[in-house]
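Lab channel / #folding
Pinned by the channel admin:
"Please post every new chain as: sequence first, then the structure tokens as a reply. Keep commentary short and put observations after the output so the thread stays searchable."

First post following the new format, from NK:
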Amino acid sequence: MPDPEMDKKLGFLISAFMTGIIWAIWHLPLFFIPGVHQYGKNFLGFTITVIGLSFALATIRKVTGSIWLCVLFHMIVNAVPESIRYDIYNSYIASTITTIVMIIVSLIAVSIFKKGLNQN
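Reply from TO:
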């Protein structure tokens, strides 16, 4: 999730997007380690998905203020592909649709949250 200071300076949209790009680069070495889920997979598909996840995690943090809910969400996201064999990273269409939905839902949730704060 983006740093709260970066969120204040750059805004939610840019900070969540930049965090997603940084996370994708951070995970790049996993694509070269045999035995790791990402090994041999499509990095572009992974990057698209990670950007969407960045928005989802940023929303959880912004709305709830909880790091632990972000940790739980991240654990679930990591566990599902290992538990139920599917490969979202090799499908650009699935990655892109999932990411677009996560971004739209995140922006709506943050907008509703901000309106609630302004009414109080």
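NK: The CA atoms of residues 47 and 74 lie 15 Å apart.
TO: also worth noting, The chain has five helices and no strands.
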